[in-house]
Specification:
Blueprint (H helix, E strand, L loop, with lengths): L16 H10 L6 E4 L4 H18 L3 E5 L14 H16 L3 E4 L15 E4 L14 H4 L20 E2 L9 E2 L4 H10 L11 H5 L2 H9 L4 E10 L3 E8 L5 E7 L4 E6 L9 E8 L12 E8 L4 E6 L4 E8 L2
């Protein structure tokens, strides 16, 4: 509720921006800037040019902006005319500076990324920071929110019971399975993806984490194989940079045994499919962190029956056999 919180160019004393960027770039890694405005929009407008110039100076080419809280000045709102213009101005200025924008809490996109492709993603809907969302939610968003542009849904949660920061360690239970979380990299399109959990949680399941390491972020072809909004969705996508395919499917609060037809694959080619699926005793409510990983040879005539638990799903990497 304050007009001035940050100037977006002054790091905390223990953050050596030059040294950190030099080290990251020496490893072939680019860092991403975070501009949390605390919804003090006029303050961000005052500092935006300097903030983007600082990013250019240190080699940041992507910014995650945030608008948490009530919009300041008072009387304005996230969807007010002034605020919508601000979001557009931020994207335009970023385009001039060759900076990609991933805006959180911003107005729901309506295809703006076709005009300004540097708007690489938005949140703009209930994302996974809300741990107690219904599994049904993930079967609806592809037909509503995602029609307007890519969504930063922050997929890849592996520990479903959130106790780390809860009073008394009780925490909350996320209603999803690990294969469900892997499938979100396919069903929730964004060319900017992340691994949203803590490193220690991934270390316990490095065999499943392999899918996150493998899955691309952009595609040359997408095939929506089957869906019923509010119940389930299954999507196949072809990697933009290779002949590999990936499939993801998620379900709602109901157990589902799904028959996958590989007829989207090119005729006459053979592939190795690695299938990450819910275990027979898996359950997105009571037993979320068990799964099976199987590898098999498939082609366009193959079919598989895959089990999806409550709040579950499956993910498949399909790579051509040389």
């Amino acid at each position: 509720e304050k007009d001035y919180v940050f100037d977006f160019v002054t790091p905390y004393p223990d953050f050596d921006i030059a040294a950190l960027n030099d080290y990251a770039h020496s490893k072939g890694i680019k860092l991403m800037m975070h501009h949390e405005t605390s919804s003090s929009v006029d303050n961000y407008d005052r500092h935006m040019d300097a903030a983007y110039n600082l990013m250019n100076h240190y080699g940041y080419d992507a910014v995650k902006s945030g608008y948490v809280g009530n919009i300041i000045p008072k009387g304005e709102h996230h969807y007010s005319q002034k605020q919508v213009k601000h979001y557009l101005d931020a994207v335009k200025k970023a385009a001039d500076k060759h900076i990609m924008v991933n805006a959180h809490e911003a107005v729901r996109p309506t295809g703006l990324c076709r005009t300004y492709p540097n708007l690489i993603g938005n949140e703009s809907a209930m994302g996974q920071e809300f741990a107690d969302m219904s599994p049904q939610h993930c079967t609806i968003l592809p037909f509503t929110r995602l029609k307007g542009g890519p969504m930063d849904f922050t997929p890849g949660i592996f520990r479903m019971k959130i106790t780390d920061f809860a009073p008394g360690g009780q925490g909350r239970q996320k209603r999803a399975t690990i294969p469900n979380q892997l499938a979100l990299y396919l069903t929730m399109y964004s060319p900017l993806q992340m691994a949203a959990d803590m490193p220690g949680h991934y270390q316990k399941h490095m065999d499943a984490f392999q899918f996150i390491k493998d899955v691309p972020v952009d595609w040359s072809k997408s095939v929506y194989l089957d869906a019923e909004p509010g119940e389930f969705i299954v999507v196949a996508r072809k990697d933009k940079g290779s002949d590999a395919w990936y499939v993801g499917g998620v379900t709602d609060e109901n157990v589902r045994d799904y028959t996958l037809d590989y007829n989207f694959l090119p005729l006459g080619k053979t592939y190795e499919a690695t299938i990450y699926a819910d275990a027979p005793d898996g359950d997105g409510f009571d037993n979320p962190e068990v799964y099976t990983i199987t590898t098999k040879t498939v082609d366009s005539t193959s079919k598989d029956k895959i089990h999806m638990a409550r709040g579950g799903g499956f993910a498949i990497s399909i790579k051509p056999v040389e």
